[in-house]
Amino acid sequence: MSPVLPPTTHDRRNFQRSLLSWYDLYRRDLPWRVSRDPYRVWLSEIMLQQTRVTAVIAHYHEFLRRFPTIEKLAAAREASVLAAWSGLGYYRRARMLHAAAKAVVRDHAGKFPSATGALLALPGIGRYTSAAIASIAFDQPVAVVDGNVERVLHRMSGRRLGGEELWTAANDLLDAKRPGDFNQAMMELGATVCKPRAPSCLTCPVIALCATCGELTATSKPVPQKKREINYALNCRNGEVLLVQRARDASLMPGMWELPEGGMSSASQPQMTLRHSITVTDYKVRVWCCVAPLPVVGKWIPVGRLKQVALTGLARKILLAADII
Ligand code: SF4
């Protein structure tokens, strides 16, 4: 397959230099960038999947406080791992993370493998994540392709590249002397300059090599969000809160703990109303303070233990808003 951008070795070298100089000066100061420890690189990459950087930062610190090493994570109970993940959503990631930690401790004596092939064999690690860990933590010359890189490549080349063509283009551009930095710089460019709807081409370090200079902006319309209303009961007694556990075979957040649904009363106002979004649904959530017993099978959990419980993101949000945690 022939290179699709920039066409000459000289231009590619210019692209690499311009991008890396810009990254060295302007990269965001993010906590996972202070270390090349593969455990930390891996953790940040898994947390950042489908989750905004700002939402990840506090969870990243707290998760490392609870599980500072891969051995501690491997030895933890699943409920503790889910509790530390609470608020990040997509809980399958946390279960896979836990399974991969066990595999690294069991099969690799606690040392992350550096080759992409061995990384790919671990639970929850796909082509993107294996390339990110291999390049950032181990300096392996493999390119990454995520949504940000894909957009930059489309605009740089002026072509809608597909599938394997994207990976080939990314690998052709890669600076093999600084592969981890180069990959992070491509993602940073897409996240902060070559943004989906309004690329800031005038501040772009590689504008001189770009085929479109912003003409190829996103054409797809955002997916319309569905609206739903939902009521929850907040039952407290003697320093305990009533929670219910989602079914172990539920398609969403199996086994996680949440407030029981219901509790509304026509005679009173809800204690609070808040908004919450899960994937393509926007929820209007009403929380009712209940004193009467509810017809649910739940468990009274002491408030002091709530931080160790695998709460759903919404339950955590409600308990925070109610000043309970
Ligand atoms: S010049 Fe504009 S469109 Fe091209 S890569 Fe830079 S920000 Fe993206």
Give your account of this protein's structure.
With 325 residues, the protein is of the alpha+beta class. It folds into two domains: 9-209, Endonuclease III, domain 1 (Orthogonal Bundle); 226-321, Alpha-Beta Complex (Nucleoside Triphosphate Pyrophosphohydrolase), CATH 3.90.79.10. Helices cover 42% and strands 12% of the residues. The chain is built from twelve helices and seven strands. Strands 2, 3, 4 and 7 form a four-stranded antiparallel β-sheet that branches. The chain has a three-stranded mixed β-sheet with strand order 1-6-5, with helices on one face. The longest helix has 18 residues, at 9-26. The protein is globular and about 75 Å long. The relative contact order is 0.12. The model has no long low-confidence stretch (mean pLDDT 89). The site of iron/sulfur cluster has 14 residues, from helix 9.
Provide a brief overview of the structure.
The protein has 325 residues and is of the alpha+beta class.
> Main beta sheet: strand number and arrangement?
4 strands, antiparallel
**Class of secondary structure makeup:** alpha+beta
* CATH fold label of the largest domain: Endonuclease III, domain 1
CATH architecture of the largest domain: Orthogonal Bundle
Low-confidence stretches: none
Query: Into which percentage range does the β-strand content fall?
Result: 5-15%
Radius of gyration: 23 Å
H/E order of the elements? Answer: HHHHHHHHHHHEEEEEEEH
| Averaged pLDDT | 89
Question: Could you name the CATH homologous superfamily of the largest domain?
Answer: Hypothetical protein, domain 2
CA distance, first residue to last residue: 56 Å
What is the CATH top level name of the largest domain? Mainly Alpha
What's the helix count? 12
How many independent structural domains? 2
Tell me the overall shape: globular
Number of strands: 7
Percent helix range: 40-55%
Q: Which cofactors or ions or other ligands sit in this model?
A: iron/sulfur cluster
